[in-house]
Design a protein that fits this description.
By secondary structure, the chain is mostly helical. It is built from 18 helices and no strands. Helix 2 crosses helix 7, helix 6 packs antiparallel against helix 8 and helix 6 runs parallel beside helix 18. About 45% of the residues are buried.
Length: about 400
């Protein structure tokens, strides 16, 4: 529903602004430019969708091998000691803990098709324990904030889009996204724990979160000692090594579990082809809407206003051009994806704005969509502090993404 309003607003605002430019400024080219953008944007969307097929099939095939090889189960076991502290109201040994762990582990690996059913199952199990059936229970809110903060180890879809948009090194955003999504998730945990009076100063959480913070601080410090060219080379090399290790590890896990690795890969690859075809109408719709909005001059007015406000403070405003992706992400995943593609098309996949848009896309998740789907599935009407915690996590991810991109690409 939110995306419907946004999409309609793109066209109505574009029409109003174009009419004003024609009537008052005599701009005779504005409407032809808008119509040209509808055809060019729809063609671009179709070409991108078709170009995604090969790489998307490859990665979904690899992910299916990892899923059947038990990688999700391993991650769930590793996360268990931490999550029992974050969900103190859930009885120890209750089956819901397994669904929560599996959902978060699947999200971390980018297995959306596996994560969503597990998440809905977890919500149903938590609703059985919920003392107030129409009101969000504390564990539900913590669970959804962890989902909306977008903690992802492998940003497959973003790297796929960068390949299609002609990026010289499609994996160069791998480590920046990993760092930004870490800060988003950490902020979500801290804010939600404050609301729910969860003690974060216990030994397990201090060791886990403190250790993770130390590692991230070490990574940032290490990269800050390098010049721009060396930083880019090291980041890309490390990212490619990690991705290759992940692929080999998934295959090895499948072999160890005596999975038919080839058949599992083919099964996942088929999903990749179907996914690429399925997104065509959505990508056409959002890119045409954004194209018309940009061609009318409305996008320039919006970004120009934001840039003017930032420059009044004397700060560098280079990041402002990527903000449409950040603003859209809490509302719509497909809308933010369209903004990201539009940024790479307009400014270049290897530009600062193009890269920052990709990091914005990967640092958080679709907060309102996730809250609506998960709460709606169990009939929750009163969401309490869920929206506030989710949006604060998003804000932390946005700020972290800007700072990290200046470090890596500025």
């Amino acid at each position: 529903m939110v995306l419907n309003y946004i999409w309609v607003a793109f066209f109505l605002l574009a029409f109003v602004i174009a009419t004003v430019k024609l009537v008052f400024w005599g701009d005779m080219d504005v409407f032809p430019t808008m119509m040209d953008s509808t055809f060019s944007s729809s063609k671009t969307a179709f070409e991108i969708s078709l170009g995604l097929t090969g790489v998307l099939s490859l990665w979904l095939g690899v992910m299916k091998v990892g899923e059947k090889g038990g990688v999700v189960n391993v991650l769930a076991r590793l996360l268990s000691p931490v999550f029992t502290k974050l969900f103190p109201e859930i009885p120890k040994g209750h089956p819901v803990t397994g669904s929560i762990f599996m959902n978060i582990a699947a999200n971390m690996l980018g297995l959306d098709n596996a994560a969503t059913p597990l998440g809905l199952k977890a919500m149903e199990q938590m609703q059985e324990l919920n003392p107030k059936k129409d009101t969000a229970w504390n564990p539900m809110i913590m669970f959804l904030v962890l989902n909306t903060s977008g903690l992802t180890l492998i940003p497959v879809s973003i790297m796929v889009y960068r390949v299609q948009m002609g990026a010289a090194q499609p994996t160069d955003i791998f480590i920046p996204i990993l760092l930004a999504t870490f800060f988003s998730t950490l902020a979500g945990i801290i804010v939600t724990s404050i609301f729910q009076h969860i003690n974060l100063l216990n030994r397990t959480l201090l060791l886990t979160l403190g250790g993770a913070c130390a590692v991230v601080a070490g990574i940032i410090w290490g990269f800050s000692q390098l010049d721009g060219e060396s930083m880019n080379k090291v980041s890309t090399t490390v990212a490619n090594i990690l991705l290759m290790v992940i692929i080999v590890s998934f295959i090895a896990a499948g072999v160890r579990k005596k999975v038919n690795v080839y058949d599992a890969f083919i099964e996942g690859a088929k999903d990749g082809f179907q996914t690429a075809v399925r997104i065509i109408p959505y990508l056409v719709a959002i890119l045409v809407g954004i194209g018309v909005f940009r061609a009318s001059g409305a996008m320039d007015m919006l970004i120009g206003g934001m840039r003017w406000c930032v420059e009044l403070t004397g700060a560098n405003a280079q990041w402002v051009d990527a903000m449409p992706t950040a603003m859209m992400k809490p509302l719509s995943g497909s809308g933010a994806r369209g903004m990201m593609v539009d940024a790479m098309t307009t400014y270049g996949a290897d530009s600062f704005v193009g890269r920052l848009s990709c990091v914005f896309q990967g640092s958080t998740d679709t907060t309102f969509y996730i809250l609506a789907v998960y709460f709606g599935s169990v009939g929750i009407a009163k969401t309490r502090h869920a929206v506030a915690c989710g949006l604060l996590a998003d804000l932390a991810g946005i700020i972290a993404a800007i700072a990290i991109c200046y470090l890596f690409f500025g």
